[in-house]
Amino acid sequence: MRVHVADHPLITHKLTVLRDKDTPSPVFRSLVDELMTLLAYEATRDVRVEPHTIQTPVAETTGVRISEPRPLVVPILRAGLGMLEGMVKLLPTAEVGFLGMARNEVTLEPTTYAERLPDDLSARQCFVLDPMLATGGSLAAAIQFLFDRGAQDVTAICILAAPEGLAAVEKAFEGHDVTIVLGAVDDHLNEHGYIVPGLGDAGDRLYGLV
Ligand code: URA
């Protein structure tokens, strides 16, 4: 498993505004979108391409195009949905599947409550979107779900991670083709399962308290 923490002043600047408790939902949503586009650029560094020959107005030349089967983007509901637009802006030909995972607030264990994915993910490159890698439970369950359907390699994109959750996912997928691209690794996870300093509940901040 590989971990890549995007180290860029623009990302840190946007993250700082995102963390601020006084940042309202509309600004929060557009910042997630902007951050996501920057993280998507890092996360797609190894997207599979194949040679493609075209004719410019001047000459024939061979470049590349994204290979078939098309990559699959999987936002984890609810908060991962806020990252989708930023991702498909960079990868417009990707297909999009959905996975609804919630954590039990007492046990912190993940459960799958919705799923809309192709049955066969063989040879698919999958990009999972989940803003907060906290305990790692729901992200690990989502990645396992994709491998169980035949996915070959999985890249997860998270805005923030707690070291505890990152270690748990690393342990679960040691030796597997999994990459995690992160905006930052924070200090720790508190007793309520929140990332510290974090940004609070990403779903609530994106969509309000439901
Ligand atoms: N999920 C969130 O939205 N925030 C956290 O800090 C942890 C999990």
Short structural summary:
With 210 residues, the chain is α/β, with parallel strands linked by helices.
Kindly provide the radius of gyration, computed on alpha-carbon positions and rounded to a whole number of angstroms: 17 Å
Tally of extended strands? 13
Which percent bin holds the helix content?
25-40%
What portion of residues belong to β-strands?
Answer: 25-35%
Instruction: Please name the CATH architecture.
Output: 3-Layer(aba) Sandwich
Structural class: alpha/beta
Stated plainly, the CATH topology is called: Rossmann fold
N/C terminus separation: 35 Å
Determine and state the CATH class.
Answer: Alpha Beta
**Largest beta sheet, briefly?**
9 strands, mixed
Give the uncertain stretches in residue-range form: none
| Count, helices | 6
Mean of all residue-level pLDDT scores: 94
Order of helices and strands: EHHEEEHEEEEEHEHEEEH
EC number: 2.4.2.9
Protein name: Uracil phosphoribosyltransferase
Catalytic activity: UMP + diphosphate = 5-phospho-alpha-D-ribose 1-diphosphate + uracil
InterPro entries: PRTase-like (IPR029057), PRTase_dom (IPR000836), Upp_B (IPR034332), UPRT (IPR005765), UPRTase/APRTase (IPR050054)
